[in-house]
Amino acid sequence: MRLxxxxxxxxxxxxxxxxxxxxxxxxxxxxxxxxFAYPIYLLLRTxxxxxxxxxxxxxxxxxxxxxxxxxxLDIEHRRVALGNLRIAFGQEKSIREMRFIAKKNFQNxxxxxxxxxxxxxxxxxxxxxxxxAEGVEEALKVLEEKKGALLLVGHFGNWELMAMMAKxxxxxxLVIAKPIKNNRWLERWFIESREGIGLQLIPPENATPKVIQxxxxxxxxxxxxxxxxxRSKGIWADFFGRKVPTTPGLAVMAxxxxxxxxxxxxxxxxxxxxxxxxxxxLKLIHTGDFRQxxxxxTQLFNQVLESIIREYPEQWLxxxxxxxxKPRRR
Length: 330
Prior knowledge:
Layout: E1 7-8, E2 11-12, H1 37-53, H2 56-73, H3 75-89, H4 95-118, H5 124-130, E3 131-134, H6 136-139, E4 149-153, H7 165-169, E5 173-176, H8 184-197, E6 199-202, H9 207-216, E7 220-224, E8 235-239, E9 242-246, H10 249-257, E10 261-268, E11 274-278, H11 290-311
Helix pairs in contact: 2-4, 3-4, 9-10, 10-11
């Protein structure tokens, strides 16, 4: 989702200050010139300072209006969102209902952009007043088995707030995060902010052995699973009745480590309130054929995601091109 654009004459610099990517959450996207890197950093630091001075309710109101504005101005992502909704719900919902979902989705993203900069200043008491946790203590009893835990995470509600789970369980959470290669100031700031909350970040390159090692040390690892996998390496699994390339990484990690997989979702409930849902460990499929098990469990994870999306359709990241744009070669 583009929050800022700089235009020169008849072309865009494609300056995407906050954009969502497959491995991380909020990402600085490459611009045509690196000369903007430090000014962008200063702009976001100023924005962060500003929204942290405001009362939370007013700051969130501003965020929601940002979402409304972007719904009308960001034609590309609005088109993507409505196209995805037609694929998922075209036979179930009216055009008016799908437009309503898309607009609510943009509003959620605008509020999340504000909340993102307020999270590092949030203490545990404030978090617990804001977020109602459901199933955390029961689900994390799996750590008694000393195999660690894998969290199946999706881009729901304000997923960045899930990072505060580390403070709730008083245990660091390992996450795979793509570096911000074109802005070292933002990269350092974001890393410091997330590590201050209790996250441990590793890059996506060769992440699987690092994750398996962390699980052997009984760590908790969060995996963003709901983005499009690479055509050449992904598993083609069903998602809303369509085959989509899906990353097999979570299934591979779970099968190799023996760690339980717990679905975790952060749902926005009203204005400034959230509900953290931690579900019981999934019953993984074991047939004795590793490749078949990877495919079957990847499909299982897609089914879990689809079920929560159907329950809270306005909360998911519809602006991402989850569905394949080109037909697969046979």
